[in-house]
Amino acid sequence: MAYFYRTCTPNELFDKHLHLKEVELKVLLVVIRQTYGYYDKKRGRHKEWDWLTISFFVKKTSKSRKAIGLAIQLLINKRLIMVKNERGMLVHTPELRRLSKKLYFKTTLE
């Protein structure tokens, strides 16, 4: 028997953000899947942040590292995602992200 799992997606994505470029939309959808898409029944809430690598985005989106890096920056600028490092500090620039050992992503959509 096959089981199908669903990822809840914030309505705001469909209502306001379908104009995004393809790579931006794909990166945003990966972040949504890896965070909002996981529901912790014990805590009664979705996962807020997830550690994601650029290689993971490449694998999931079939886009180049350069395109993904640019899309991440554009999504940060549009306030659709937030990125923090392993110390919990927000990293808003590519330079700060390159200096980080781990990057944690969160969608700001609700």
TrEMBL record:
InterPro entries: WH-like_DNA-bd_sf. Gene3D superfamilies: Winged helix-like DNA-binding domain superfamily/Winged helix DNA-binding domain. This is Bacteriophage lambda Replication protein O N-terminal domain-containing protein. It comes from Pseudotenacibaculum haliotis.
